[in-house]
Amino acid sequence: MSIYWIFVLFISGWSTVSIFILMKNRFETDSTSIGVTTAYSRWTNTFPSIGICLSKNRITDDFTNAVKKRFPGEKPSYTYIRTLYDYLFINPNNLYLKGEYCKNYNSTCGVDILAMRRELFAMVCTEFFEEIYFSEKLLPDCEQIFKFHELEVGYCFLANNLLDYKNINEMPLRYSSLDKYRNLRLILRSGLVYRYDLYINSPEDLPYFNAVSYTITGEPTVHSFNAEEIYNNEDVIYEPVSQRMCKFPSETTTPGMSYSFSICMSNTRSKIEMEICNCTLFSHFDRRNLAGKVKDYVGFNMACLPSCMEQQITFVGSREKTYNISESSNFVEIEIASPPTARYYRTVTQTKLDLIVAIGSVIGLFFGASILNLLEIISFIFKQFKKMFC
Q1: Which domain does 49 fall in, by range?
Q2: Do residues 155 and 123 touch, judged by C-beta distance below 8 A?
Q3: Which of 264, 312, 339 is nearest to 48 (CA)?
Q4: Calpha distance 58→190 (Å, rounded)
């Protein structure tokens, strides 16, 4: 009989330990969850971040004269001018080998490329923005909307980006689910040394080497998207990153910049470039695909987690639009195809206090049962001794 009770105690102890392990594993791997709410009639939504970046267009007289000004008394060849034009727009997606005609110059063919950019490129939006409409309302001051930044893809003007605002509530482009119009229309100057690439991303993200872009042309085009937002319970930020599998903008390792997937990817690219060639641009001596290498590294090492605030932006489609603009203008419109009817909320399902309470309950149940069993065993042994000596 004593063996039976010892076996019962052993099974009870083993079960309790197993329950402890299961609770610990659940707390470490499943402490957060994402729910959906559909009370969309009361929402104020944030328009996606819009990036207008300057990219290669064509060689103009202004550029040719800027080159000739740097070599007085000489007549630079067209090939040389073309090389400098390529270098002017160099970025991780546009890289060029220095030709033989540059062998007697420095790495940028004898010209200060950064100085030429400052001379020829716009650094304030008023130099090329003609009109901006949001929700069919004219916005008179583009500088209140688009802020200049020099990024890895070149000179960019960003709207609704956390790089310029402390939080999304301060951003100028916001709309209600009840608004009839949810669009941003841009009319830009054309015929310059640069053209424009359009980037659509979440407010904490930036245009980067692997981002999708849309070329802005003289053909009036409307790009349609749907956007759904993610909000977080205030306790989520205190959960370990390994559990929530995302990072908040404040959890950054880059001074002066919020955390985002795009910034993490850019930092990873720079790190790999430095390891390969000790410079911040890709070296053509290594013929392997750098973009693929960065994506493989990020995928295998989980180096870049998504942002906890990342908007879920879905491309719906593009269409041409009839709109009267001059031949010297480019036109693009970004619209939210349909107002969001769902919003995601990330919440904490189990806090440390919940874990402590659960452990206490199991311990209380185990010891309650164990003490009863122990008293029964003592009573049984006492009866056996009584029979032997009485």
Answers
A1: 34-348
A2: yes
A3: 312
A4: 11
Give the separation between CA 357 and CA 116, rounded to whole angstroms: 66
* Token pair for 249: 């903008």
Is pTM beyond 0.85 here?
Answer: no
CB 341 within 8 A of CB 38: yes
Tell me what pLDDT residue 118 has. 93
DSSP class of 2: H
Residues 150 and 42 grouped into a single domain: yes
* Same structural domain, 19 and 41: no
Contact 154, 118 (CB under 8 A): no
Task: Copy the structure tokens of residue 71.
Answer: 């070599």
Tokens representing residue 23 in the block: 């609770």
Tell me how far apart the terminal alpha carbons of the chain are, to the nearest angstrom. Answer: 21
Same domain, 84 and 150: yes
Task: Tell me how crowded residue 5 is: count the other CB atoms within 10 A of its CB.
Answer: 16
Max CA distance (Å), the chain: 128
Q: How are beta strands 329-336 and 183-189 bridged, if at all?
A: antiparallel
Q: Same structural domain for residues 161 and 40?
A: yes
Segment among 28-32, 111-115, 223-227, 343-347 with least mean pLDDT: 28-32
Angle between helices 2-29 and 352-389 (to 10 degrees): 180
Co-location of 160 and 190 in the same domain: yes
Residues 234, 102 within the same domain: yes
Residue among 215, 211, 213, 214 nearest 291 (CA)? 211
